[in-house]
Amino acid sequence: MTQTAGTPAPPGKQMLSERAYVRLREAIMRGEYAPEQALKPQELAREYVVSLAVVREALVRLVGEGLADRLPNRGFAVPALSDRRWQEIAEARRTIEPVILRMSVERGDLDWEARVRAAHHRLSRTPAFVAEEGEYYSGTWAEAHRVFHRTLLEGCGNPVLLDTFDRLWTASELARRWSGHSAPARDHVGEHSRLEEAALARDADAAAELLDRHLTLTAAALASGHDPSTHQENNPDDYGQRL
Length: 243
Hints:
Blueprint: H1 11-29, E1 38-39, H2 41-48, H3 52-64, E2 69-71, E3 75-77, H4 84-107, H5 110-124, H6 139-154, H7 159-182, H8 188-200, H9 204-224
Antiparallel strand pairs: 1-3, 2-3
Helix pairs in contact: 1-3, 2-3, 4-7, 4-9, 5-6, 5-8, 6-7, 7-9, 8-9
């Protein structure tokens, strides 16, 4: 029997597609593919020992997440490092997330406070870099980082806003990994500690401004290609004066 439109793919094909997607996603995140490098379906199909259809399905999923580009008449490729899209995503996050955090600080209950503390504790105890994953943020740290930021915002109680955060976070994940490569000396530990302190002190103004600056530093690392903490504007001595 042939498969008709709308009929779910066989379980075996779904499993192969998921495995190919996870494997390719992890390879991109680990920096195994350079910015703008072609992702050739035929080569990937041979390497992963799967069909072209399975590889293409995985690539389409990655395009939807902002982790690959689909180029007219040129197939697929890793996004460009200097792509204006990263700055557009950063602008969207700076516009939306401080507002959500302000709501979260004002509405969050005691359970939210406990979750923020737990998420920050895990993040602060997780190494950002490990030898086996090279110069990019480790996968374990990246997940702890995501959980901390999302937990900060969950006190807002608005699932629509949280869904928006989820989409923007996924779209910016590769840029965030590259930012770690560009700015290895960045004080992410201090930035996250100050965010936690301001949120749990119920200082919505300080928390929102700290988050805006946190996101700005990530965008600056990509735009400049160097560690933003070495720039005069980002001197730690004037950090408090800008808040």
